[in-house]
């Protein structure tokens, strides 16, 4: 642990305690009592990112006169292709510093800006807008969906739409079964379907090492699980869920499109919801959804989820200001990746993802 001192907007001394989440258990102890902490804030997720992509962690606690103000997890992404920046956090749909004081946001931004200047970042990004001042620009916009899991399984499922209920009946009539798994064989089954699904959508899959690390640091220690849906003894759909504290996250879904008519995805998600409803989970997050993906938006709403807009905040170091949204890149690359042979598409993912976030 290292400490440094700065000042807040009123000139009061703010202490920053830097902690390595990979070696110091203090970090998980600090975040465990915060009601908004998710798996993305944990040292387990930090290990996944560092082990897979070699990113450098910059995690710290801000304190004012001995009282904690905020817990801030940042990762430095350094790439010859995409530049150097700070992200809170890579491959995390929604993640922001955990505030312990309503007035701490300005101190957080000031400290992260200082780190960014010292490290040569072009910008830093928070994956929600809680740090962005009112009226400032926001860089990206998505839909976010959450399901209230405070009730028992029967009450949660009572909010499923009629289309979901029909899909579940069809899956069951078709002989599809679903099981909650935490073994490494399930990871292999998931990855086969993940690679197939990503190719269908015209994007490369995350590297196999990413999911091996997820198994080692999240699933095996009991912070996540995989649902495997099978028909006639073969895996036809899979879903990966993480959980920490009050929150669970539906992180990845995958399926064999040749079996889509049997609705195995619906059964996999329903099985996970039933499993989570029997635990201490209070909120299930369905991840972010592109504003242009109306079909996925409707699918998430059909589970009785609550919808809200999710904004990101990106601060440009040289501009010394919050950056507005940019034009989305062309989707022509999807045709390219869709046309690649499966092994080449997997290789492309292994080569590209270390440069992305």
In short:
The chain has helices at residues 26-32, 43-53, 105-119, 153-157, 162-173, 184-200, 208-219, 264-277, 294-301, 332-339, 342-352; strands at residues 2-7, 13-19, 56-64, 67-79, 83-88, 98-99, 123-126, 140-148, 177-181, 224-231, 234-244, 247-255, 283-290, 306-316, 321-322. The protein is α+β, with helices and mostly antiparallel strands and 357 residues long. The protein has two domains: 2-141 and 310-326, 3-Layer(aba) Sandwich (Aminopeptidase); 150-281, Aminopeptidase (3-Layer(aba) Sandwich), CATH 3.40.630.
Written overview of the protein:
- The protein is an alpha+beta fold and 357 residues long.
- The chain folds into two domains: 2-141 and 310-326, Aminopeptidase (3-Layer(aba) Sandwich), CATH 3.40.630.30; 150-281, Aminopeptidase (3-Layer(aba) Sandwich).
- Helices cover 34% and strands 31% of the residues.
- It is built from eleven helices and 15 strands.
- It has helices at residues 26-32, 43-53, 105-119, 153-157, 162-173, 184-200, 208-219, 264-277, 294-301, 332-339, 342-352, and strands at 2-7, 13-19, 56-64, 67-79, 83-88, 98-99, 123-126, 140-148, 177-181, 224-231, 234-244, 247-255, 283-290, 306-316, 321-322.
- It has a 15-stranded mixed β-sheet that branches.
- Helix 2 (43-53) runs antiparallel to helix 7 and helix 5 packs across helix 8 (264-277).
- It is globular and about 65 Å long.
- The mean pLDDT is 94.
Spell out the key features of this protein.
alpha+beta; Aminopeptidase; 15-stranded mixed beta sheet; 31% strand; 34% helix; 357 residues; 2 domains
């Amino acid at each position: 642990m290292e400490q440094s001192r700065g000042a807040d907007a009123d000139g009061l001394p703010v202490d920053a305690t830097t902690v390595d989440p990979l070696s110091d258990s203090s970090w998980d102890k600090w975040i465990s009592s915060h009601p908004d902490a998710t798996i993305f804030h944990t040292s387990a997720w930090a290990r996944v990112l560092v082990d897979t992509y070699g990113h450098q962690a910059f995690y710290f606690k801000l304190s004012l006169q001995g009282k904690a103000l905020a817990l801030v997890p940042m990762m430095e992404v350094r790439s010859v292709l995409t530049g150097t920046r700070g992200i809170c956090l890579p491959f995390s749909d929604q993640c922001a510093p955990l505030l312990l004081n309503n007035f701490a946001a300005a101190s957080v931004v000031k400290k992260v800006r200082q780190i960014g200047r010292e490290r040569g970042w072009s910008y830093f990004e928070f994956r929600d807008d809680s740090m962005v001042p009112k009226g400032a620009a926001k860089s990206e916009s998505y839909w976010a969906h959450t399901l209230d899991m405070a009730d028992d399984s029967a009450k949660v499922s009572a909010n499923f739409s009629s289309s979901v209920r029909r899909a579940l009946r069809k899956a069951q009539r078709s002989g599809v079964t679903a099981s909650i798994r935490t073994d490494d064989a399930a990871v292999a089954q998931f990855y086969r379907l993940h690679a197939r699904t990503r190719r269908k959508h015209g994007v490369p899959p995350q590297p196999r090492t990413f999911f091996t690390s997820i198994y080692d640091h999240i699933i095996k220690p009991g912070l996540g699980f995989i649902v495997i849906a099978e028909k006639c003894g073969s895996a036809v759909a899979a879903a990966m869920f993480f959980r920490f504290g009050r929150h669970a996250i539906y992180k990845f879904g995958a399926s064999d499109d040749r079996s889509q008519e049997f609705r195995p995805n619906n059964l996999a998600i329903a099985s996970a919801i039933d499993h989570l409803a029997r635990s201490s989970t209070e909120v299930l997050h369905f991840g972010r959804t592109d504003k242009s993906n109306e079909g996925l938006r409707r699918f998430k709403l059909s589970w009785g989820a609550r919808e809200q807009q999710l904004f990101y905040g990106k601060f440009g170091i040289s501009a010394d200001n919050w950056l507005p949204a940019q034009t989305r890149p062309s989707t022509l690359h999807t045709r390219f990746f869709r046309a690649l042979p499966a092994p080449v598409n997997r290789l492309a993912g292994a080569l590209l993802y270390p440069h992305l976030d």
